[in-house]
Write a structure and sequence with these properties.
Layout (H helix, E strand, L loop, with lengths): L26 E6 L4 E6 L12 E5 L1 E3 L3 E6 L5 E11 L2 E7 L9 E4 L4 E8 L5 E7 L3 H8 L25 E4 L11 H10 L2 E7 L22 E5 L1 H12 L4 E4 L1 H9 L10 E5 L14 E5 L6 H9 L2 H13 L10 E4 L1
Parallel strand pairs: 1-17, 3-12, 3-14, 4-11, 14-16
Antiparallel strand pairs: 1-2, 5-6, 5-8, 6-7, 7-10, 8-9, 9-10, 12-13, 13-15, 16-17
Helix pairs in contact: 5-6
């Protein structure tokens, strides 16, 4: 398929710059694949669409303050680190800007020397492998020196950094939030539990590759970034039992989809475990485990738009996006949501 098949023209004013005061008050577009209908609701109405015995699969990753500003030892030149993936206790893969200042052996300092770093490898894609030097607890140092890495299309400063975390975030390691989950509150989850809807948690640490544009004309030629995922025995048991009993598996966000589809056997059985996934889901893909999806509205020509087009079909998704623009939906990370049934 051609990359242009996934282009749409989005007015800049529809890119949400701030989260709404009430997480659940976002608009919710409901796509019914069987009936081919589109309904406009609010996110708190999602309770009406999930049934007893269904299972929500949620990504409990937690965003770390992954953006660091420092200077190059010697010259004092200003640089920016964007942490992507922790390789061991003191070594990370990251994006470094400006890249010309980041050859092997280059050294940098942060926070008046509280944190130092040395480039030990330059990868083919331009990312760097960096070893850090510090005294104390890494998480505390990062929390005091780092900033929340909001996506580049968000220009306004976030007043409350917890609004870029889901209420159920737990396992630190993401460079970006699994944003479909931002619409949930503890109270809404409790309402779903009272209705008999189960919840199961997976972990996938979101990398900044999520926001990288597809640079090839034919999407089949695109190579996905890798991301770490983990599924517990408890989660695998809940999902497999739900499927056995005829309940639906509803993923919250594309990261949950990629996690389940990466860890499922051909018959849809989910296996517990962990690893790196570079799964690329686009139209023509046959889903093994996932039945439905809660997701936000994605960037034009993005792999995420391709994924949801695989779950429904491209024409129906592009039609829905056109209607969302006409109805002034809010787009991207702090925007409104879609439920694909």
């Amino acid at each position: 398929m051609d990359i242009k098949d996934f282009y749409y023209d989005l007015p800049q004013e529809l890119i949400a710059q701030k989260p709404l005061k009430d997480r659940t008050s976002s608009k919710l577009m409901v796509l019914d694949r069987k009936g081919g209908t589109i309904n406009h609701k609010h996110f708190y109405d999602i309770v009406d669409y999930l049934k007893e015995g269904d299972c929500l699969v949620m990504n409990n990753t937690r965003v770390i303050p992954a953006r660091l500003y420092g200077s190059k030892e010697g010259s004092g030149g200003k640089i920016e680190f964007l942490l992507l993936k922790r390789l061991n206790i003191d070594t990370w893969e990251l994006i470094l800007r400006p890249g010309k200042k980041a050859k092997v052996g280059s050294r940098f300092t942060f926070g008046d020397g509280r944190l130092k770093a040395e480039v030990i490898e330059v990868k083919e894609d331009g990312n760097r492998i960096v070893r850090f030097e510090f005294d104390g607890i890494w998480e505390e140092i990062l929390d005091s020196l780092g900033e929340m890495p909001l996506p580049p299309y968000i220009k306004e400063k976030l007043e409350d950094k917890n609004r870029y975390q889901t209420v159920y975030s737990k396992i630190e390691g993401s460079a970006a939030a699994p944003t479909a989950g931002l619409h949930f509150t503890d109270e809404l989850i409790e309402k779903l539990h009272q209705k008999g809807v189960k919840t199961a948690f997976v972990t996938l640490h979101v990398g900044l590759g999520t926001f990288r544009p597809v640079s090839v004309d034919k999407i089949e030629d695109h190579k996905m970034h890798t991301e770490f995922y983990q599924i517990s025995n408890e989660t695998a048991d809940i999902i497999n039992e739900t499927r056995k009993n005829g309940g639906k598996i509803i993923c919250v966000g594309t990261t949950s989809v990629r996690t389940l589809e990466s860890s499922s056997e051909s018959d849809g059985t989910v296996l517990a475990g962990s690893g790196d996934t570079s799964i690329f889901i686009y139209p023509g893909y046959k889903f093994k485990t996932v039945d439905s999806l809660i997701t936000n509205f994605h960037l034009p020509e993005s792999t995420l738009l391709m994924l949801i087009s695989a779950l429904y079909d491209r024409d129906s998704i592009m039609k829905a996006y056109s209607e969302a623009i006409n109805e002034k939906y809010r787009f991207f990370s702090f925007g409104d949501a879609m439920l694909i049934l």
